[in-house]
Amino acid sequence: MGAFVASLDRSIEDMRRLAELMLDELRAIESRDPDGLQQIVDAKRGLLARLENETAQQKRWIEAAGFGFTPDGLERFIQAHDQADQLGTRWSTLLDHTRRCDRLNSDNARLIERDQRRVAMTLRLLKGEDTGATYDPRGRAASSGQRGRTISQA
């Protein structure tokens, strides 16, 4: 059981570090730092590989003990083998870190999508395409119905 506890501790630390990297990633995205972003992506890739290996080992231990690697199976494994609340507390901490990383990942993805939309809108404006980004007196989106002028025509 000591090896399983140590594995959980490594996973917790790796997830904590992943959250830090995702915050760094957010700052790199916001500051439009492609070199910094690439370094963060490379660090995340290595960290995720370690997490996958730890998870695979944890799965083997749990299944070898006769439990499924499912939320129910994990709960039953913890109930059957937890001594002095070593497993339950660690598992709960790992889940908390995992949820935090999931939220950070979603936040970063939304930021990237927003920036992509902004770049696409700018390109459409530069090409003179109607963007539908004007509004009528009631505040509803209104299209001019005609093609705009390119920057060179303006």
Question: Notable features of this structure?
Answer:
154 residues; mainly alpha; Methane Monooxygenase Hydroxylase, Chain G, domain 1; two-stranded antiparallel sheet; 2 strands; 73% helix
How would you describe the overall organization of this protein?
With about 150 residues, this protein is mainly α. It has one domain: FlgN-like (Methane Monooxygenase Hydroxylase, Chain G, domain 1), CATH 1.20.58. Helices cover about 75% and strands about 5% of the residues. It contains 4 helices and 2 strands; from the N terminus they run ααααββ. The protein has helices spanning about 1-30, 35-65, 70-80, 85-125; strands spanning about 135, 140. A two-stranded antiparallel sheet has the order 1-2. α1 (about 1-30) runs antiparallel to α2 and α1 (about 1-30) packs parallel to α4. The mean pLDDT is about 85.
Question: Can you lay out the helices and strands and say which pair or pack?
Answer:
Blueprint: H1 2-30, H2 34-64, H3 71-81, H4 86-126, E1 134-135, E2 141-142
Antiparallel strand pairs: 1-2
Helix pairs in contact: 1-2, 1-4
Region (Disordered): 130-154
Biased composition (Low complexity): 140-154
Function: Required for the efficient initiation of filament assembly.
Summarize the structure.
The chain contains 4 helices and 2 strands; from the N terminus they run H-H-H-H-E-E.
Output the number of helix runs.
4
Task: Report the portion of residues in β strands.
Answer: under 5%
Order of helices and strands: HHHHEE
Shape: elongated
Level-2 CATH architecture: Up-down Bundle
What is CATH's topology name?
Methane Monooxygenase Hydroxylase, Chain G, domain 1
Provide the gyration radius in Å.
24 Å
How would you state the average pLDDT, rounded?
A: 86
- Span of the ends, CA to CA: 73 Å
Query: CATH H level: which superfamily?
Result: FlgN-like
